[in-house]
User: Fold this.
Amino acid sequence: MFNRTARGSGWRRWGNLTAAIAGEPDQLDPQKSTAYFSFEVLENVFDTLVEPDKNLEMQPALAQSWQVSADQLSWTFHLRPGVRWHDGSAFTADDVVYSFRRIIDEKLANVDKFSAVRDVRAPDPATVVISLSRPTPNLLTNVGGFKGMAIVQRHNVETGQIATHPVGTGPFAFAGRKSGDSITLSANKSYWGPHQRSRA
Assistant:
């Protein structure tokens, strides 16, 4: 049995919660993993642009609003202001572009979700525009229905640290790992949303 411990959650400010999961995560890079055990941990560390509610309707997350062009070939996402990575650095539209281009260019696990994407760009630090080759009504589900579409930090990836110490924007930050035993997460005190959103 593998354990994950969440410290200082919103409902018990300085308490600890230990939860057992049936297996050990195969890796800590959400864009490369397809393992259920990995996402049981990583869904608490990373965010997506949008996310499903209990009725599976897509709601704002890192993107607080969006518009679709009349021809449905351009989606413009307006990012939530003030979001920071767990290391304290600012989250910007460039992070979204980098994350989506990484999935596309490296042909990672969920690249099929981007089959209609022609371009992803950031006209300014708070805006992301996704251009499509054909109308894609389920684009919100494609970019937010799977934690494999998580927004990752370029520095965390390029230094190789994402595999051992992932940095996200989620309600809990990675704090440590004992191979074969446990992973510890700490509450992100500056999280943009309520901590109880996490399933840790």
In short: The radius of gyration is 16 Å. The beta strands are 2-7, 16-21, 50-52, 58-60, 63-68, 74-79, 117-124, 127-132, 172-178, 182-187. Residues 8-12, 196-200 have pLDDT under 50 and may be disordered. Residues 93-105 form the longest helix (13 residues).
